[in-house]
Every structure is written in structure tokens, then in C-alpha cells.
């Protein structure tokens, strides 16, 4: 996930837009430092878009609850969270108190809660259904959020760890779940925004928009104190990175560089043997968010000012194979239902989410 404000939102005040009408195939130049196979270009990946779903003012980075099949949309300017089903049926609206600026939602399937960051009130909400059941306070400009699953969890406390990017303090908060116990923080680069975890390696990737870098943090297993032993490696990427995700099939990391109009790829083959090996996919205007599709191995990247979603080759290769023009304005966040192949893309400018399969 993804994004930016005050150091982030002011930088995001560019148009966003979305609707998936079948677009023309476009091959872009990949400049890799490692060899990758070029995937076969597919004639179509998406059917015609379904009716767009109105949410609220300034929808940000939606999260998908795989248990209930609900989509949670934080509305930055409305100060609320819209919950709807995949068919655009509104399940409910979660009101937040004055000053709220919700940014990103994520579902933790081990603990069965949705978590939403609130940049304006410096807190994170724990949500069950359409009810806020807990609030994590004392954060410092929380923006991106993700979780680290436990490989040994059998239920009860400390099943996973919630990781929150504190943009204002250049840290990542570490919170044990479901107990909501704050266990400290890790210093990363300036203006951390997007987070992604590789559960196979327990590596956390942090996109630092203020320093054109990513921090790669080696984490302990959830429930184990952070202590002083964890390691942080800083890697260069493009300008103003705002999105990051991991291809969990092979461990490759994708970073969307908003300011340099490209996507940096760090290959997993370089992560253990070193040094890190990277490539660059150019020509994607103002990329913002990145999402990995576990069913196809494809990588999707949203393009803010171009109002497009790009399909990358993912596990099959790293070239760009398709772009889709969206119908909503201000293409921003992206999430999907892998079980039925539906994708949800937020249009920040017009308050809609586009549903495409």
C-alpha cells in the first residue's frame, strides 16, 4: 500500500481516475540488471467495468475482507469509512469523530479484523464488520499499514503483528495483535508511506517518499520482542516512492516511484546472496499503488494522473503487457478479491470506487 500527505496529501493533490475499458497493449522498455523472461502478451485481462460505487469525499486505499467479502474504503475528506459488498451494495458507513482523515484499510485474516489508519487523529481503528471495536492511539502521522502473519500461531494473543508507517516521525510502529500491545518502533527513512511484508523471510519493505529509498527491515516472529537485534538495510529507488508490494511467489519487490514515473524491481535472487539486484520499468506516469495478484502472479500498478491501471508480467516476467484506462477520476488505491478475480480501484477526485473483473 501506498499513498502520501502533508509530506503526503499535498503531494497527492494531483488528479486521480479509474474505469477499466479494454486498452491497447503497450510494451515498455525494462532496464534490468538481471535476466527475466518476457511474458506472452494476453489479449484481454479484464471485462467491461461494472457500475462504479459511490463512497465519500476523497476515497484513499481500500482494503478487502476475504472472510465477509466486504470492501472498506477510507474517505479522507469525508472523515468516514464506507463498507460495501463486491456488488456495490452498501453494508454501512462508519462515522469517525471530527478531524479524522482515514487513509488505508487492511484485513488481517489471522485475527479477522480490519485496520484503518487515521492520519488526522494519529490513530488506527480495529474494526469488526461495521463496528470500531478498538483504537490504537499515540501514533505520529500514521499512513501505510500492513501485518506480519505468524507461522506458529494457533489462536489467541500474538497471532500477528500490525505494522504502521508513522510519516511524521520517520518510524514504523510495531503492535502485537490481537492484544493491541505497542511494542515499540523502528527508525526508517524520511516520510515512510507504503509497507509490505514477505512472510517467508519476515522482511518488511518500507517506501520512504522523502529520501527516494526503501528500508528493508528483518523482523522477528510475531510475539518476539524487537529488541536491538533487528537489521535495517537502505536501498535506492526512484523519486518519491509511494507504493510497494511483494510477489510472494518469488519474493521480488516492486516499488512505485511517483516522482520519476517508473517502478523499481528488486529481485529476490539478490536478497540472500547479495548485493541486491534491481531493474527499472519506465513510462508509467505518476505510479501510486502496487498490488500482487496471487492467482495469476501479475502485478498491478495505479497511475494517478493518467487514470490507468498497468498490468506487469509479475512472476512470468517484468515487462509491461497492458494498460487499462479507468472511468473514475484520480486513480489511487487498488485491492482485489482473488477468489473471484474482482478488482477495486479508488477514484480520489470523484468519490467513487470502480469494480472490474
Largest sheet geometry: 5 strands, antiparallel
Our measurement of the CA-to-CA distance between the termini, rounded to an integer number of angstroms, reads: 21 Å
Please bin the fraction of helical residues: under 10%
Radius of gyration: 18 Å
Number of helices, where a helix is a run of at least 4 consecutive DSSP H or I residues: 1
Q: Poorly predicted ranges (pLDDT <50, ≥5 residues)?
A: 1-49
* Strand numbers in spatial order across the main sheet: 2-23-22-21-20
Give a short summary of the structure.
It contains one helix and 31 strands. With about 350 residues, the chain is mostly beta strands.
Notes on the protein architecture:
The protein is mostly beta strands. It has a single domain (17-356), classed as Methylamine Dehydrogenase, Chain H. It has 1 helix and 31 strands. It has one helix at 269-273, and strands spanning 17-18, 30-32, 53-54, 63-65, 70-75, 80-85, 90-95, 102-108, 113-118, 123-128, 131-136, 142-149, 160-166, 171-177, 181-187, 192-198, 203-208, 213-218, 231-236, 241-247, 252-257, 262-267, 277-282, 287-292, 299-303, 308-312, 320-325, 328-329, 331-337, 342-347, 352-356. The strands form 8 sheets. Strands 2-23-22-21-20 form a 5-stranded antiparallel sheet. It has a 4-stranded antiparallel sheet with strand order 3-31-30-29, with no helix packed on it. Strand 20 and strand 21 (252-257) form a beta hairpin. The protein starts with 16 loop residues before the first strand and ends with a strand. 54% of the residues are buried.
